[in-house]
Amino acid sequence: MTDDQGGVGAGAQLAGGFGSSGRGPRLLSGGGRRATVISTASTLVVLAALAAIFWFAPGSAAVRHTFFNPQDMWQSFVGNPRKGYYSVGEALWLNIRMFLVAEVLILALALVIALARQSTSPVMFPFRVLAMIYVDFFRGVPLLLVVFVIGLGVPALRLPFVSSQSAAIYGVCALVLSYSAYVSEVYRAGLNSVHQSQVAGARSLGLSHATALRYVILPQAVRNIIPPLLNDFISLQKDTALVGVLGAIEANEAAQIYSSTVFNFSSFTVAAILFLILTIPLARFTDRLVARDRARRLAGGLR
Questions:
Q1: Cα dihedral angle (273, 279, 280, 286), rounded to 10 degrees?
Q2: Is 119 in the same domain as 238?
Q3: How confident is the model at residue 294 (pLDDT cuts 50, 70, 90)?
Q4: Which of 1, 204, 230, 293 has its CA 20 to 30 A from that of 222?
């Protein structure tokens, strides 16, 4: 048997193994359906067991009244300023606005920091050092401390205009300073993931470094870093709740005010549910992008 005949025979065996008459697809298809049924059943059993443990626990009634009281959950959601507490649902709008503004500023500032750290020009050396110090500092200091320093320290300076802003603005500044350090490293990873042949090819076409960066390197780098960027922004959405320590009435602070007014923690459950409604769709979207990017890479490797 020649090599060609052996290759054809192996191909026929492979096709037979995974064709309509082979066992491959039947095993995969049947296994897939069976795995789905088993996973669904096991999930239901685990959830039912957890629900039973919670429901029949000795302190279940007290916990349900404290954290899951329907009347308190509704009252905290709609709010009642006359009774001294705010709507958690309306306060969430402040979290969303802080998140959107901070996201745009973080993307811009982090890109500048990443490009400064990636530069090789001797003129940019001081900026590379400053960018490195910036990243090391804000990645090492807890975000809550940054919020306190910006929100309490800047007003104490009594600077014209700067020291007279709202707590939400100081909170956004703290979020931008802290998260830009993390996102800049994500940018750097994306820039380093672009093969040097792409850079060399762009320069061989006569493109300047800035033009090659704009039209060749950055588009490829951004496509590679979209999933980790979205993961960072999921965390950013949750961390907007830290701005409440400065007195801004966001969702978590509104829940705190309600709980201290009526001595019931159901408002925190409402705030948690609202944050989940915001973050879960973004998390699933991120997973979908990761899966699509993985499929694209595998398809490219098989060509």
A1: 180
A2: yes
A3: confident
A4: 204
Kindly state whether residue 128 falls inside one of the protein's structural domains.
Answer: yes
Three-class SS of residue 85?
A: strand
* Token pair recorded at residue 270: 């409402």
**Nearest-5° angle of CA 181, CA 183, CA 187?**
115
CA triple 191-194-200, angle to 5 deg = 110
* pLDDT band per the 50, 70, 90 thresholds, residue 303: low
DSSP code at position 164: G
Number of domains in the chain: 2
Encode pLDDT of 113-141 as tens digits.
999 998 888 888 999 999 999 999 999 99
Q: Provide the whole-model pTM.
A: 0.79
Residue 105 forms part of a structural domain = yes
One domain, residues 243 and 272: yes
Q: Where are the alpha helices (DSSP H) in the chain?
A: 3-18, 24-56, 60-67, 70-78, 88-118, 125-140, 143-148, 154-156, 167-193, 196-204, 209-212, 218-239, 251-262, 266-302
* pLDDT per residue as tens digits for the range 154-189: 999 999 989 999 999 999 999 999 999 999 999 998
Domain span holding position 259: 70-302
Q: Using CA atoms, how far apart are residues 296 and 303, in angstroms rounded to an integer?
A: 11
Look at residue 264 and tell me if it is in a domain.
yes
Confidence (pLDDT) at 18: 44
Residues 201 and 275 in one domain: yes
143/23 same-domain check: no
Q: Which of 143, 71, 69, 92 is nearest to 275 (CA)?
A: 92
The one-letter code for the residue type at 290 is: V
Burial class for 112, CB neighbours closer than 10 Å (0-12, 13-18, 19+):
middle
Q: Cα dist. 51→47, 60, 94, 276 in Å?
A: 6, 11, 34, 20
